[in-house]
């Protein structure tokens, strides 16, 4: 049986059920690397270039791990655009070339171009091309892809209920997961899914917040309409798919009184995040905002301290409503003309 | 209305001409100094790339001088330059500045759209006059590039480098003052002739190709004046990007000036097979081009965290081995230690000098 390797990084968190179903239906065996762990990270940062962002470096680690398992093909799609007039990120557009240049001894690569920036015709051809590696039956190929899309839909419905992508993939593969329900704070947690939902890359940010008594609201729990409506309030359409989702969800959450605060997880050196975070900070109407930047450092305690401090602040803010009107630095702290 | 704009190398000369011709008062930002960068760094997002930080500094300094309208470029990604203007506007408004922002954005790189937007800026200027103005601005850019190219050629060769540098400065100033096509070219060719007459050293200089991100290549303040640094070390530099080439290829579809943009993109195969935004593919394509022209080395420069150039950097080592050309990447951010850059450039040129010398020795033996 032909073995296809899918690295468990980057868009694994968005499309794994689609890809897996597609290849399995075409009669291939799908193997993927283990979830990100310290070894993946070490392997990745050893070969990837310094300037790349952390999830890209980790992806290099996943590919090396997969390579050791000896698959017949490596599936490294070139994700240019997954919707009209939007892109993912320049690094994704050049990713297969970056990998080929840095890791020379790889099995044959299935380098599928996903570019729907103008229409989906190109994608249909690419799917046919990739499917032809396994079968010449065109009907079977399009059926496998349709089945994949159905599975993707199921998976997305799971995420709408509040599971992170890692949890949703586990449930999709047949494991059981429960969402904690006891919580006194409600936080909007944002970031690129491939770093936020990866428990190793994000240092389990979502898990820690839940342990601290927070209910976590993610981008996927907002509806498409809510996101697009809020994102449309920006002076220009954000041309990164994930960036627009994040900024739309954040601004939507900022106008929601039930949400106590926003947490944004960014990766050091992320281009879209540098602009998106600025929009959110400046346009979220004073909603408490915590920006966390991660790279390959391993100091989890630093992260915990900041999360605890943020939660403490939010709880106190609720108790002493008056205090939230005082800026910590401003001239009003000692009283001004119009107040005490 | 007092219009200002961001700096990018000698582009201000052309823009001043455009606004003057459109009968709009312009307030060019003061030359980029340490203060410009400090202001930009202070108010821009931490991970924004360097050009944005310099932009913000430029705008603050120009607004302080009384400008009330900012003209800025735009784009549709995937490079983050497409969102510069919007984020910059938010930053400056939050700082309390009162101004208008005109964003020149060609939706599909159509010059007609751009022209319409330019026209909306203009007051009562006839189409003919506007066209004339654009033509003069183009002539100025072209003349400046003649001077720049001559400096790049003669600086490493002449003995009195400061003289060549001074001739260059004077020529740019007189092109800036010129109000006719002939005056521009006259200044350019006179400077070129004067440089030619300076006494030269005997040895043929090393030649390095400079590739990378457009702003970092065109703006000396963003690259520690790398072209002059190398020139003073006796190294000739050829750039992958000249402003007129870029304008011609991207705004006029290659009609007004013949460029080899297509062949550069073709040379990027098979190393980088897809467009990655910015100048990522051009960086790889030009490196291959320089290698085939027998340049002695290639230096890639870009602002830290530049996404397209990161892709290019990952691929550059493979190009370096396969095309047999030494390559080095330099990232620029707000760090301002020239000595560090100087040392790295010296080490690189020493290395390629030795490599070239040894190769020619081996052939003789």
Structure write-up:
The complex is a heterodimer of chains A (340) and B (365). In chain A, strands 2-1-3-5 form a four-stranded parallel beta sheet, with helices on both faces. The N and C termini of chain A lie far apart (77 Å). Chain A is 47% helix and 13% strand. Chain A has two domains: 158 residues, Rossmann fold; 145 residues, Rossmann fold. In chain A, strand 1, helix 1 and strand 2 form a beta-alpha-beta unit. About 2% of the residues of chain A have low confidence. Chain A is globular, with a radius of gyration of 22 Å. Chain A has 340 residues and is an alpha/beta fold. In chain A, 47% of the residues are buried. Chain A has 14 helices and ten strands. Chain B has 365 residues and is an alpha/beta fold. Chain B folds into three domains: 122 residues, Rossmann fold; 78 residues; 161 residues, Rossmann fold (3-Layer(aba) Sandwich), CATH 3.40.50.11900. Chain B is 57% helix and 11% strand. In chain B, the strands form two sheets. Chain B has a four-stranded parallel beta sheet, sandwiched between helices. In chain B, strand 1, helix 1 and strand 2 form a beta-alpha-beta unit. Chain B is globular, with a radius of gyration of 21 Å. At the A-B interface, helix 4, helix 5 and helix 13 of A face helix 4 and helix 14 of B.
């Amino acid at each position: 049986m032909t073995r296809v390797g899918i690295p468990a990084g980057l868009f694994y968190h968005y499309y794994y059920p689609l890809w897996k179903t597609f290849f399995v239906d075409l009669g291939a065996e799908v193997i993927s690397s283990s979830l990100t762990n310290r070894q993946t990270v070490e392997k990745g940062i050893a070969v990837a270039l310094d300037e790349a962002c952390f999830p890209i470096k980790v992806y290099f680690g996943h590919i090396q791990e997969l390579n050791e398992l000896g698959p017949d093909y490596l599936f490294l799609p070139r994700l240019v655009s997954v919707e009209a007039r939007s892109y993912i990120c320049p690094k994704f557009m050049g990713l297969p070339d970056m990998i080929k240049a840095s890791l020379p001894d790889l099995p044959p690569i299935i380098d599928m171009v996903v570019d729907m920036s103008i229409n989906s015709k190109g994608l249909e051809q690419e799917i046919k091309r990739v499917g032809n590696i396994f079968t010449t039956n065109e009907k079977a190929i399009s059926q496998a892809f349709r089945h994949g899309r159905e599975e993707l839909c199921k998976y997305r419905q799971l995420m709408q209920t509040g599971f992170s992508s890692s949890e949703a993939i586990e449930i999709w593969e047949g494991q059981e997961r429960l969402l904690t329900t006891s919580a006194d704070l409600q936080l909007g947690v944002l970031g690129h899914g491939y770093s936020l939902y990866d428990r190793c890359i994000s240092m389990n940010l979502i898990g820690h917040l839940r342990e601290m008594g927070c209910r976590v609201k993610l981008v996927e729990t907002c509806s498409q309409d809510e996101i697009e409506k809020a994102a449309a309030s920006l002076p220009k359409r954000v041309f990164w798919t994930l960036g627009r989702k994040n900024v739309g969800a954040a601004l939507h959450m900022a106008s929601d009184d039930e949400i106590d605060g926003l947490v944004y997880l960014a990766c050091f050196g992320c281009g879209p995040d540098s602009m998106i975070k600025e929009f959110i900070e400046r346009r979220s109407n004073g909603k408490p905002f915590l920006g966390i930047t991660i790279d390959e450092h391993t100091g989890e305690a630093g992260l915990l301290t900041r999360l605890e401090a943020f939660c403490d602040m939010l709880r106190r803010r609720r108790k002493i409503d008056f205090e939230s009107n005082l800026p910590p630095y401003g001239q009003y702290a000692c009283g001004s003309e119009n107040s005490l | 209305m007092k219009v200002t704009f961001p700096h990018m190398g000698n582009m201000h000369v052309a823009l001043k001409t455009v606004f003057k011709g459109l009968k709009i008062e312009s307030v060019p930002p003061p030359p980029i100094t340490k203060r410009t960068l400090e202001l930009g760094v202070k108010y821009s997002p931490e991970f924004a790339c360097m050009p944005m930080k310099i932009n913000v500094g430029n705008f603050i300094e120009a607004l302080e001088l009384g400008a009330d309208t900012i003209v800025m470029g735009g784009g549709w990604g995937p490079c983050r330059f497409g969102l510069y203007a919007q984020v910059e506007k938010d930053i400056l408004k939050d700082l309390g500045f009162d101004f208008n922002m005109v964003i020149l954005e060609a939706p599909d790189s159509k010059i007609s759209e751009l022209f319409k937007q330019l026209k909306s800026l203009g007051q009562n200027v006839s189409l003919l006059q506007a066209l004339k103005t654009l033509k003069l601005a183009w002539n100025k850019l072209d003349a400046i590039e003649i001077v720049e190219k001559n400096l790049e050629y003669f600086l490493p060769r002449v003995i009195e480098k400061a003289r060549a540098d001074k001739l260059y400065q004077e020529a740019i100033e007189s092109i800036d003052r010129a109000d006719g096509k002939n005056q521009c070219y006259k200044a350019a060719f006179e400077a070129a002739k004067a440089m030619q007459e300076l006494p030269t050293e005997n040895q043929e200089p090393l030649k390095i190709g400079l590739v990378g991100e457009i702003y970092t290549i065109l703006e000396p303040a963003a690259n520690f004046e790398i072209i002059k640094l190398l020139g003073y070390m006796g190294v000739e530099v050829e750039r992958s990007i000249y402003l007129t080439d870029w304008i011609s290829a991207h705004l006029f579809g290659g009609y007004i000036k013949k460029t080899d943009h297509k062949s550069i993109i073709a040379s990027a195969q098979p190393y980088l097979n897809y467009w990655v935004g910015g100048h990522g593919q051009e960086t790889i394509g030009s490196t291959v081009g320089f290698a085939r022209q027998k340049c002695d080395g290639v230096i890639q420069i870009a602002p830290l965290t530049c996404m397209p150039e990161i892709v290019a950097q990952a691929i550059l080592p493979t190009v370096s081995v396969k095309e047999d050309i030494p390559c080095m990447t330099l990232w620029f951010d707000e760090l301002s230690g020239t000595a560090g850059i100087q040392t790295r450039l010296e080490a690189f040129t020493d290395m390629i000098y030795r490599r070239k010398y040894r190769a020619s020795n081996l052939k003789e033996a």
